[in-house]
Amino acid sequence: MSNSVGKAHGCTISVGDISVTYLESHGSILNCLESADVEVHFHCRDGFCGACRVTLDEGQVNYPQGEPLAFVGDGEVLACCCQPTSNIRLTID
């Protein structure tokens, strides 16, 4: 995970057998996955509740608004408020 700003546009987000291209217009990983009909649980979209917590198996992400307030364990990210800075692979429980 990274806090540095990186180029996100055109990165690939993989979940299982599904791969989605991230566009800057998506804003967040959650929005990108929703646009491809990939189900991710969420509530607040602002990094407060932690409901959208997913496992980051590969790659790097950036939190453009700063670190989220919800608890994020090692290897986890909040899909609602981060962006990929490289191709990433996620596991959604």
Structure report:
Keywords: Ubiquinone. Residues 9-93 form the 2Fe-2S ferredoxin-type domain. It comes from Thalassotalea eurytherma. The protein is mostly beta strands. It has a single domain (12-91), classed as Ubiquitin-like (UB roll) (Roll). The protein has one helix at residues 29-35; strands at residues 12-15, 18-21, 53-58, 61-62, 76-78, 83-84, 88-91. The strands form two sheets. Strands 2-1-7-3-5 form a five-stranded mixed β-sheet, covered by helices on one side. Strands 4-6 form a two-stranded antiparallel ribbon. The model has no long low-confidence stretch (mean pLDDT 92).
Poorly predicted runs are none
Shape: globular
Mean pLDDT, as a whole number?
92
Strand content: 25-35%
Based on secondary structure, the structural category is mainly beta
Spatially, the strands of the biggest sheet line up as 2-1-7-3-5
Output the CATH topology.
Ubiquitin-like (UB roll)
Keywords: Ubiquinone
Domain 2Fe-2S ferredoxin-type: 9-93
Organism: Thalassotalea eurytherma
Protein name: (2Fe-2S) ferredoxin
What would the keywords be for this entry?
five-stranded mixed beta sheet, 8% helix, (2Fe-2S) ferredoxin, 27% strand, two-stranded antiparallel ribbon, 1 helix, Ubiquitin-like (UB roll), 93 residues, mainly beta
